[in-house]
Design brief:
With about 280 residues, this protein is an alpha+beta fold. It has 5 helices and 12 strands.
Length: about 280
């Protein structure tokens, strides 16, 4: 049995953001009948900032939920959307920067939450140097639209895009002793705010696409959105001896409203022998 798509009836939703995420999310949701309006009536940096000035005291999920709740409350719209990104972890922890983007849609009419996620590597690196030439080389290795933060003894400058802006910030801080040398070692690090980080932007868009798909995936029993894969069953039999392995046997699609469940079999019938605890102990 397959779920039907959500009927295309226009509904308005509020997105709480101060980092210009509307352009990344609104076109995707508009295509399925959700008209998104952004608001910056609450300073989301008070919940935590990527520059580290304000530590985030909530989990990413809690933070996205807070933003969604505030978005609905501040605008009076029936749906609030919260967006939150976090760096760290991933499959190559300590080796590759990993971005996890989360979008949470809160429908205040029903109390339902729909959570969409997207993640992937972000090829960004920091630099500590006293050389303007080294800064120029570093910037050339990254997306030209990527923003940067300069940290020095007097403080920091954020939102710097391109060598000209970085150089201007260093000049304003009185750190350029000549055309090529700084009077102290500075730290140049990526500005990870969404509007200044192209790598993050692609994952936010991917999360929006998943959110749209989950909104349109209706429970065959009660027609509530977000009839989605939410668990797995392991036990796929070994290709040689048929003993159950730890490979996925089926995906479980579940409705959080009425509890209806469907099992979606794995595309493969048997697990490779290398995953069998009997054949390959």
């Amino acid at each position: 049995m397959t779920s039907e798509k959500h009927s295309v009836a226009i509904v308005e939703a509020a997105l709480l953001t101060k980092h210009h995420k509307l352009a990344l999310i609104e076109p995707v949701l508009a295509a399925i009948g959700i008209r998104v309006i952004d608001t910056d009536a609450f300073d989301t940096d008070t919940l935590g900032s990527f520059s580290g000035e304000t530590p985030r005291r909530q989990t990413p999920l809690e933070c996205a939920r807070t933003k969604a709740q505030l978005a609905a409350e501040l605008t009076g719209l029936p749906i609030g959307i919260g967006s939150e990104g976090s760096f760290g972890g991933g499959p190559y922890a300590g080796l590759v920067n990993w971005d996890d983007e989360l979008l949470l849609l809160l429908d205040t009419r029903t109390g339902q939450e729909i959570v969409a996620v997207a993640s992937g590597p972000v090829p960004l690196a920091s630099l500590e140097t006293e050389s303007l030439a080294a800064i120029a080389r570093h910037l050339q290795q990254h997306d030209a639209a990527q923003g940067w933060i300069c940290s020095f003894s007097q403080g920091l400058a954020k939102g710097l895009v391109g060598l000209e802006q970085v150089q201007a910030a260093l000049t304003a801080a009185g750190l350029l002793t000549d055309a090529a040398t700084l009077s102290e070692k500075i730290k140049l690090q990526p500005d990870l705010r969404a509007h200044l980080c192209p790598a993050r932007q692609q994952y936010i868009q991917q999360a929006a696409q998943q959110l749209a798909a989950r909104w349109q995936s209706l429970c065959p029993s009660c027609q509530q959105p977000d009839f989605w894969r939410k668990a797995v069953e392991t036990g796929l039999p070994c290709e040689v001896c048929r003993y159950p392995t730890d490979r996925i046997k089926s995906y479980i699609k579940k409705c959080d409203g009425c509890g209806y469940i469907e099992r979606e079999p794995s595309r493969v019938e048997f697990a490779e022998q290398g995953h069998c605890p009997l054949c390959n102990p």
